[in-house]
Amino acid sequence: MTRVENAPAVDLQDERLLAPKTLGDSVRAAVRRVRDGDLGMLPVFGGIIVIWTVFQLLNRTFLSSTNLVNLSFDIVPVGFLALGIVCVLLVGQIDLSVGSVSGVSAAITAMVMVQYGQPTWIAIAAAVAAGSVIGWVYGQGFNRFAVPSFVMTLAGLLAFLGVQLWLLRGQNAVNLPYDSNLVQFAQLWFVPAWLAYVFAVLAAAGVFAAGWIGARTRRAAGLSAVSMRLLVMRSALILAALVFAVYYLNRTRGVAWMFMLFVAFVLVMHYVLSRTKFGRSVYAVGGNPEAARRAGINVKRVYSWVFVLCSTFAAIGGVLAAARLAAATQSTGTGDVNLNAIAAAVIGGTSLFGGRGSAFSALLGILVIQSISSGLTLLNLDSSYRFMVTGAVLVVAVALDSFARRSRQAHGRG
Amino acid sequence: MTITESAAPPVLSLRGITKNFGAVAALADVDLDVGAGEVVAVVGDNGAGKSTLVKILAGVYRADAGAVRFQGEEVALESPAQVHALGIATVFQDLALCENLDVKANLFLGRELRPFLLDDVAMEQQSWELLRQLSAKIPTLKVPVAALSGGQRQTVAIARALLGDPKVILLDEPTAALGVAQTAEVLNLVERLRDNGLGVVMVSHNMADVRAVADRVAVLRLGRNNGVFDARSVSSEDIVAAITGAADNAVSKRASRLAAGTEES
C-alpha cells in the first residue's frame, strides 16, 4: 500500500477521535482537558500568580529583584526534601522523617567539618551517605517486615531527631567556617550574567531540539506529531520567560548557583521518572503494585530505591540548609520543615494516592510555600500567620486534587 | 491454515498435576492438553480448582507433583516471568493493569524498549500494530487505562499477553465482567487468536461463551478431571452433569422437572 500524502497518522485513524487539526483546535482541546479535570500544573501556576499579585499589592518590595533572589536561595533546602517526597508519593508511600534526616545530615556536616577538621567534601559525602543508609533501612523495614511507611518514618522522625541532638552534643549550634566553599556556595556564589543567559538560551534550544527530533521520529514512524508552529511558539515562550527571569534577577545579585543545582536535580529526576524504565516502574507500582509485580517488575527493589532516593535528597537538603545558615542547629529540619516539604509536593500536583505527579511539582510547590512565608515575613507577620496560611493553601490544594480526580473519572480521563 | 487436532502433538500438555493447600487437595492428578490453533475451555463449579490450575500454569503457584510438557519438552513453571519467557502468557481475571498509566505504557510494562531512554515512538508503533492485528477498538493510546471500558481493558490485557509472541495464552474468566456487546468482541478476539495458531486455554463460568468458541471442553470437579468433551457434539446438559458430578443433582433435577411440566411440585 502506498501512503497517500494526507492519510491520517497511524494513531489518528479512529473516526471517533477528536484530533486537533489547527492551532485553534489544539487550544480548544487543552481547554476541554482542563474542564474535564485534567489540570496538570495549572493550579500551581495559578496559585503562584495569585500569591505573588496579592503580596505585591500588600508590599511593594515583594517582587523586587532582591527579594526574588532571596526566594531563589530559600526554596532550595526544603525543595530537595520535597523532591524526595515526590518520589515516595509516586509509589503511594510517605516519608514523614525528611526533616529529621536533613537535621541529622546538617549535624554530620558541621561535626565532620568543625569538630574533626575534615575537608568539606568528606563532610558532604558522609552526610549524604548517611541519608542513603537511612533510606535503605526504611526500605528493608518496609519490604522485609512489612512495617507501613507511615509508621516506619514516624519512628524515624523521632529517632533521627534524637540522633541529631546527640550528634550536636548539647551544643545549640555548631557554626560552619564562613570562608568554606560550602557556605560561600549557599550564600554568595552566582552564575555570571553572560553564562546565565547562555543557560536560558540552551534550555529553550534544548526544548526545541527535543521536540523537533521527537516530532521527526514520530512522523517517520507514521504517527502524529506536534506542528512546527506550536513547537516554535512553545520554545519562544520559554526563551522569553527565562531571559526575562535572568535579566530581572541580574538587576541585583543574579542567579544563584545553589538554585541552579536544585533545578538541575529537578530536571534529572524529571528525566528519570518520565523517560526511563525505572521511572515507568515507579508510576506502575504507585498505580497498582500487584499488576506491576505480575508484569515482572521487582516491586520491592523499586520501593527500596525510592526510599533511598528520598532520604538521600533529604540529606542533600540538610547539607544545604546548614550551608545557607552557616550553622547546624538543634532546630535544623524541625518544626514545619517536614510538613512544608510534603505540602510542597502535593500543592505542586503530586497525588497523595500514588502514581500521579512529576518532579516539577517539587519546584513549583516549594515556590508557593516559600512565597507565602517570604510575603508574610515582609508584612512583619510572625510564624503563627505563616502556619495558618500554609495550612489553608494545603487544604485547598488537596481539595482541588480530589475534586479534579472525581471530574477526571467522570469524563473518562482516569 | 488447517490443523487437525488429533494429528498435531499438543503444544502444552499437563500430566498428573497435583496441588495441596494444607489438608485440602485443590488439584489431584489433573491432565490437560492444548493444541496449537485450538481453544480449550476449562469449566467447573466454584472450588473445582480452575483458578489454582491457572495460577500454576502462570507460574504464580508451584505444583506439588506432575509434569508439564511445552512444545514437546519437559519444563518447570517457576515464576511468572519465566513462564512468560517460555511462551505461556496469562490474562488474569482482574487484568492486572495499571490504571494510571496509558495503554502503551501498560502494554510494554516491564518490557520497555531502551531502558535508559524509553523509545516511545517504537513502542507506540508496535502497540498500534498489535491492536490493529486484534481489530481492537481503542481510539487512542494516550488515555490512561482508567478511561477505557471493560471490553477495551480486556483487549489491552490480551494484547499485552501477546506482546512476547507466546504459543499458549491463558484467559481467566475473560467475559465475567463484560456486557453483551463487549463479550462478543472478546469472543471474536479469542477466535482470532486461534486462527493465528495460538493454543488458547479459556477458563469460564459461562456456558454460552464456552460453547461459542471452544473446540474442546475440559471439566474439573473437586480438583479432578471429570471428562473432556468435543464442544461441537456435546450438549450443555452433559457439561453441566459433568460439572456437578452426576445426573442426580439440583440443576438436572430442575431441568427435568421443568421439562416434565412441573407435575411433581
UniProtKB/TrEMBL annotation, chain A:
It is found in: Cell membrane. It holds the Pfam family BPD_transp_2. It comes from the Bacteria. InterPro entries: ABC_transp_permease. The chain crosses the membrane at residues 39-59, 71-91, 96-114, 120-138, 145-168, 188-210, 231-249, 255-273, 302-325, 337-355, 362-379, 385-404. GO terms for cellular component: plasma membrane. This is Xylose transport system permease protein XylH. One of its GO terms (molecular function) is transmembrane transporter activity. Keywords: Cell inner membrane, Cell membrane, Membrane, Sugar transport, Transmembrane, Transmembrane helix, Transport. Part of the binding-protein-dependent transport system for D-xylose. Probably responsible for the translocation of the substrate across the membrane. Its main location: membrane. It is a multi-pass membrane protein.
UniProtKB/TrEMBL annotation, chain B:
Residues 12-247 form the ABC transporter domain. PROSITE patterns: ABC_TRANSPORTER_2. It comes from the Bacteria. Keywords: ATP-binding, Nucleotide-binding, Sugar transport, Transport. InterPro entries: AAA+_ATPase (IPR003593), ABC_carbohydrate_import_ATPase (IPR050107), ABC_transporter-like_ATP-bd (IPR003439), P-loop_NTPase (IPR027417). The keyword Transport applies. SMART domains: AAA. One of its GO terms (molecular function) is ATP binding. This is ATP-binding cassette domain-containing protein. It comes from Glycomyces lechevalierae.
